[in-house]
Amino acid sequence: MLGQISREQDLLRGPRHVAIIMDGNGRWAKARGLKRSEGHVQGYLNLREVLRYAVEFGVEVLTVYAFSTENWHRPQDEVDALMELVVTAVHAQTPELISEGVRLRTIGDLSRLPDRAREALLGVIEQTAHNTRINLVLALSYSSRDEITRAVRALSTQVASSALSPEDITEEHISRLLDTADLPELDLMIRTGGERRISNYLLWQGAYAELYFSDAYWPDFGREDLRMAILDYNERERRWGKTSEQVQALSEEE
Ligand code: FPP
After folding, report:
1. What pLDDT is attached to residue 238?
2. Is any atom of ligand 1 closer than 6 Å to the C-beta of 219?
3. How many CB atoms lie within 10 A of CB 212?
4. pTM of the prediction?
């Protein structure tokens, strides 16, 4: 019983920043004889639920992979359905995001999105900019390699104009040019749908993140699944390349 209580207390000092690769919508739909796009609608409905649980478990930032750079190569009707879902979802959810204190943000190359989707997103980003309860970060037209390429391009421009010399470039310069510049360190990355890959997601940011894989298809990933992922995270010792003894000595100093 005591063990149970302390595990529940652990949940409260869980990860600040959680990222999710929401995989398995297509297979969820196929198993029910539905269209893939219907799986994405169900995935969106589940994201609304999981956001609530993330608030309950004290997560400060939830960064979800909604559309990757590679997803542009999917069949056009699926791409169109996903973009339309973004517009519908933004319009439907804005009042609730505002009243529930959710700050919506995006990472990725929004310039590639259809105008309607980009404008809807920019509107809700502005309307929720002062919310502080939780940050919901949608990765849209996002891939890590694309993000890092854009950062390198920006850095090269500074070097070319002699504003920065190559030997002065630090990891900090790169971090500051990534889409996630003002977000806290990534603590936990979850992938649903049974695959054990990172798929070009938050490669730089996930350098020391704990990884958690769930076999549940994203539309089925519920409160208990998130709770298990967070408890699992809390039981791991994060060492950032140090020894266990060094980490313990540091935490005793705090
Ligand atoms: C991967 O599953 C999922 C996606 C490519 C899209 C994820 C999008 C959502 C959950 C909707 C989010 C909506 C908004 C408005 C933010 P998959 O299609 O690759 O599944 P499969 O591996 O089973 O084929």
Report:
1. 72
2. no
3. 21
4. 0.92
